[in-house]
Design goal:
Layout lengths: L1 E6 L7 H8 L5 E8 L6 E9 L2 H11 L3 E2 L2 E2 L1 E4 L51
Antiparallel strand pairs: 1-3, 1-6, 2-3, 4-5
Length: 128
């Protein structure tokens, strides 16, 4: 069993179209098009699982660079998903350091003024 990454597919591509594209090269276990969680729209890539590794290699050789819907497909062996590290996405400011170069010497989670968000401001001491 070999899992293939199929990149640069048109957003309108269906699982049936991908199956039809790969079937001449060998038996297919599963086709899954990756979609955006919020919109449900295709993200432009998919995974095709083929039962035989040799057939999967032949499919890569035959289909990598082939056009589908005006786009050149990018096909290779799928690599396991790696943990990219960092805090979970969502909420807060994109970029972590507020978009300032260098981040002001804070750790990667720094956020400038937002560090005290939700806390009451303390009155300042007079300067005299």
């Amino acid at each position: 069993m070999k899992k293939l990454f199929v990149g640069n597919i048109p957003h309108s591509t269906t699982e049936a179209e991908l199956r039809a594209l790969f079937e001449p090269h060998g038996a297919i276990e599963q086709v899954s098009i990756v979609t955006d969680r919020d919109t449900g729209r295709s993200r432009g890539f998919a995974f095709v699982e083929m039962t035989d590794s040799a057939e999967a290699e032949k499919a890569i050789a035959a289909l990598n660079g082939k056009e589908l819907g005006g786009r050149a497909l990018n096909i290779n062996e799928a690599r396991p998903k790696t943990d990219r590290g960092g805090p979970p996405r969502g909420g807060g400011r994109p970029g972590g350091s507020g978009g300032r170069p260098g981040g002001g010497g804070r750790s990667s989670g720094g956020g400038g003024r937002d560090d005290y968000q939700g806390h009451a401001r303390q009155p300042r001491e007079p300067r005299w």
